[in-house]
């Protein structure tokens, strides 16, 4: 971190941590006693990894949601097999799920309408503990056709927050999701803290955390190793803070893809600080479709204090993204990329092209800054290089091979 930004970051992280306080000290009335136990084992769940525990978790949720004050659902030690868990509100209580055991998502895809664990329209919610949310992806990854077609049937995401306000996910492990491990949509004031997300590097579409149309999301002190983006930030995301994250294997920390659909909203105010990427196929990436359908902005991003370790393409802005030739290569982008700062970024690149700033002919990137950037190709028979097209900005303290602005 450079002087002047450390205090600001500390304030942001402290504010995010207050999300956890919100679910522990409720402003609701004096807690009422739920109609039944909130310990799923007491309700009849068996932690043998074979018996379906879905109805017992849903019963505990029903009891907790209808009560007042702060209610704690307990998943005790054991392995609890479940199908889809629709944890819906609104609730009259604040709810904490204490995960000491392991939840296993059944491999029977008929058990899911869409997602596995979906928390919807709930305020003041938390999951904490040292247990595991195991999607058992290896049982169904063979059914994933999304690498062949964008019109594929989507497999269930593991943990989804939809229309949630004030949420904390802390301490738990998400393992081998069928699709995304965590999806945060239309939510605000969300903290992901000290979480571990793990899947093989060749597992399909197992993004670590995806954020879309959400505000004030903080991901801190989290380790992510997946087969796709460690973190992906979609349209409509604002005030996103990513701090102290270890990423790899995976596809890096990405913004986008942007502009694929109509009526997408701006991505604004993103800070990625004090993170490390190890052996990822991309590093810090901003990507938008070449024939974007929406007019939107990606603006006010800061990447500060990043270490690259054998990362294939460490720094990328790509306004000409067109996977599988699904778009026309007209070059008429509608996505504005402006005010992006890369600073204090060091380490090694697995390819000679350590910096790629590939912006649109009709809508050049503006206000791009690189300060104290020194990423070197770690191979032989080639030299470190940067490729810059249609980009305007400035550099300082940058390795000469990378100073293409």
Automatic annotation (TrEMBL):
Location of the active site: 251
Reaction(s) this enzyme catalyzes, per UniProt: [(1->4)-alpha-D-galacturonosyl](n) + H2O = alpha-D-galacturonate + [(1->4)-alpha-D-galacturonosyl](n-1)
SMART domains in UniProt: PbH1
Subcellular location: Secreted, Cell wall
A single GO BP: carbohydrate metabolic process
Signal peptide: 1-24
EC class: hydrolase
Database matches in InterPro entries: Glyco_hydro_28, PbH1
GO molecular function annotations of the record: galacturan 1,4-alpha-galacturonidase activity; polygalacturonase activity
Domain of life: Eukaryota
Family according to the record: Belongs to the glycosyl hydrolase 28 family.
Function: May function in depolymerizing pectin during pollen development, germination, and tube growth. Acts as an exo-polygalacturonase.
Protein name from the UniProt record: Exopolygalacturonase
Organism: Zizania palustris (Northern wild rice)
